[in-house]
Amino acid sequence: METPAHKDLSTPAQRALDALAVNTEDQSALDVLAHSDVLVPVPDDAADADGADATTVALPVLEQPGGEPVVPVFTTEGEMAGLLPFVSRYRLVPLGALASQWPEEDLSLAIDGSSAHALTLTSQGVRTLLAR
Asked: Which helix (H) or strand (E) holds 93?
C-alpha cells in the first residue's frame, strides 16, 4: 500500500505544536510536547563538553528583535538547519526535563522558530506548561 505524497511526515512533537496553534489549552498536545526530545543547539565555538556535567545543558540565548532573550530549540535537524545553518552540533534533551530546570529570569523558549508550527513560550509558560 502506497502512502499519498501529501502524507504527514511530521514528528509527534510537530503535530503537538500544530494542535497547540489551534488550541493553546490542548492538554494532550502539551503532554506529548513535554515528553518529546528536542535539539538544543551547541555553538561550534563552545568548549568541548567532554568534561562537562552530563546533567546540565548550556542554553543558547539569542536576542529577538526588540531585545527579548530567547532560547531556540528544535524538533528535527532540518528545522534547526533552517534557522541556524551555521550550527552543526546539538544535544538531545527531553523538553519536560529542560522545562523543569528553566531559569527564573525572563527567558522565552522558541520551538521550531522559523516553521509554520513555531511556538514561543514565556519563562512562566515553560515552567507551568511543560515541566511535567
From this structure: strand 89-94
35: left (phi over 0), alpha (psi -120 to 50) or beta: alpha
Work out how many domains the chain is built from and give that number.
Answer: 1
Contact 73, 80 (CB under 8 A): no
pLDDT in tens, 21-37: 899 889 999 999 999 99
Establish if 86 belongs to a structural domain: yes
The Cα-based distances of 47 to 28, 30, 58, 73, 90 in angstroms read: 38, 33, 11, 19, 13
> Domain holding 23: CATH number?
3.40.1350
Q: Which domain holds residue 28?
A: 12-44+59-130
Give the model confidence (pLDDT) of 33-75 as tens digits: 999 999 999 876 666 544 455 567 788 898 877 778 999 999 9
> 114-131 pLDDT, tens per residue?
888 899 999 988 888 776
At a CB cut-off of 8 Å and minimum separation 6, what does 88 contact?
Answer: 44
